[in-house]
């Protein structure tokens, strides 16, 4: 009988080829040559005395036996990874890596970070600016802060922390006291180089027509918001980025903030849920509700 422990390298190579559907991609993932992968596969087939791939096709096709083996190996290797991660964490202090868009971090999260540190006493928190789509295979991030529709990501779970809102804001000094709320649409408009259609999207979603006004573009939304606080014009901004400034009276939102179909949420790997994650989630939910209420005087 074949001893699997004597063929771990070949089994790992086979699992990668089966999962990726390509000798070349498996070789890249494992850091070896295509020839080395093919050699391991042939040796494994010889040891098992059975073929794992149906030859004669341009695309790799697994035999029925190989499909069952690949599924079992994927689960086994994932279990090994989780066990090693738990062993590593058991010898370390609590550590949490939080990734979010830069504007959200600067405008909402960082001012509240001391409170989260007090709540998670003894936990080290790493903060990462992140604008890419989260994937379950990336184990460098513990918690992603995301916004938008509830698109399912395989291997990850999503927890809502608050609604997605956005709307035009400006300094009170730019608007005539007692003027109509729509007056904010008549001042210079601030926007970003990309995405380019923020204002037109808001107009379409909210049903509010936009008059012709000058437009000033910035590389980043963070810059546009700071320009709005300096009195340069009106910026279209997400709620968390301006709630504190509205609460402080530095910005006003006379038209309110429009509620979109999406939401703000925390995402993490489905095999990663812990008491630390759930405590962080509850903190985000409470802080989100409190900061929005403070901005608009809600009890």
TrEMBL record:
Molecular-function annotations in GO: DNA-binding transcription factor activity; sequence-specific DNA binding
Keywords: DNA-binding, Transcription, Transcription regulation
Pfam families per UniProt: HTH_1, LysR_substrate
Record flagged with keyword NADP: no
All residue ranges annotated as the HTH lysR-type domain in the record: 8-63
Domain of life: Bacteria
Family according to the record: Belongs to the LysR transcriptional regulatory family.
The protein, known as: HTH lysR-type domain-containing protein
Source organism per UniProt: Pleomorphomonas diazotrophica
């Amino acid at each position: 009988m074949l001893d699997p422990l004597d063929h771990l390298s070949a089994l790992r190579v086979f699992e990668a080829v089966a999962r990726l559907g390509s000798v070349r991609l498996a070789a890249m993932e494992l850091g070896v040559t295509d020839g080395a992968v093919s050699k391991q596969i042939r040796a494994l087939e010889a040891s098992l005395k059975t073929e794992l791939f149906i030859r004669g096709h341009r695309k790799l096709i697994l035999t029925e036996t190989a499909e069952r083996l690949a599924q079992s190996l994927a689960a086994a290797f994932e279990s090994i990874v989780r066990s090693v991660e738990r062993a590593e964490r058991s010898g370390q202090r609590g550590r949490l890596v939080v990734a979010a868009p830069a504007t959200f971090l600067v405008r909402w999260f960082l001012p509240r970070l001391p409170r989260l540190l007090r709540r998670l006493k003894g936990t080290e928190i790493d903060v990462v600016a992140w604008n890419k789509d989260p994937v379950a295979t990336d184990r460098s991030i513990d918690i992603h802060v995301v916004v938008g529709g509830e698109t399912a990501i395989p291997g990850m779970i999503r927890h809502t922390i608050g609604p997605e809102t956005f709307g035009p804001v400006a300094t009170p000094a730019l608007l005539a006291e007692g003027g109509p709320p729509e007056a904010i649409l008549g001042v210079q408009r601030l926007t970003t180089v990309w995405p380019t259609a923020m204002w037109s999207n808001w107009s379409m979603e909210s049903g509010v027509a936009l008059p012709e006004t000058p437009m000033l573009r910035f590389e980043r939304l963070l810059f546009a918001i700071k320009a709005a606080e300096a009195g340069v014009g009106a910026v279209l901004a997400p709620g968390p980025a301006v709630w504190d400034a509205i609460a402080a009276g530095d910005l006003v939102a006379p038209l309110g903030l429009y509620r979109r179909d999406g939401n703000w949420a925390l995402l993490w790997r489905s095999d990663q849920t812990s008491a630390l994650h759930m405590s962080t989630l509850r903190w985000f939910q409470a802080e989100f509700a409190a900061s929005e209420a403070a901005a608009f005087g809600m009890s």
